[in-house]
């Protein structure tokens, strides 16, 4: 039985342009199904966890910043912020699919927690608002044993947040 604590540092830059839905933002004509914010190259985090045989459990902190896509947001939307930031904390559970005598290990995982998100409005009276929402994610990938103590991970994740509520303009 293998048990141990671990620390993980990660870069979470987006490669695929996943959709970011923000209620209250009107997209340009013909772009209604496009995301008002672009994928992020400014994203990362870290985790502290415990491994028990093929199961890992960790507490993860994440930061991400998305930029406004000016080609998608309707020009009448003058109060859409130039960026949207999120700080997230999640508890994750992973299953490592061990392959005998192989340095590569596929894994799958899920996590739940909270996200602290900036208001996507730049209206002076509300731009400094921030709010909490429920956060969740699903992950899959592979790890490579560089040494018995050091692993290199490559994978994909789906991250979502729901429930943060903001004022678009002063009430």
TrEMBL record:
<dbReference type="Pfam" id="PF01617">
    <property type="entry name" value="Surface_Ag_2"/>
</dbReference>
<dbReference type="InterPro" id="IPR011250">
    <property type="entry name" value="OMP/PagP_B-barrel"/>
</dbReference>
<dbReference type="InterPro" id="IPR002566">
    <property type="entry name" value="Msp4_OMP-like"/>
</dbReference>
<feature type="domain" description="Msp4/OMP-like">
    <location>
        <begin position="39"/>
        <end position="168"/>
    </location>
</feature>
<protein>
    <submittedName>
        <fullName>Wolbachia surface protein</fullName>
    </submittedName>
</protein>
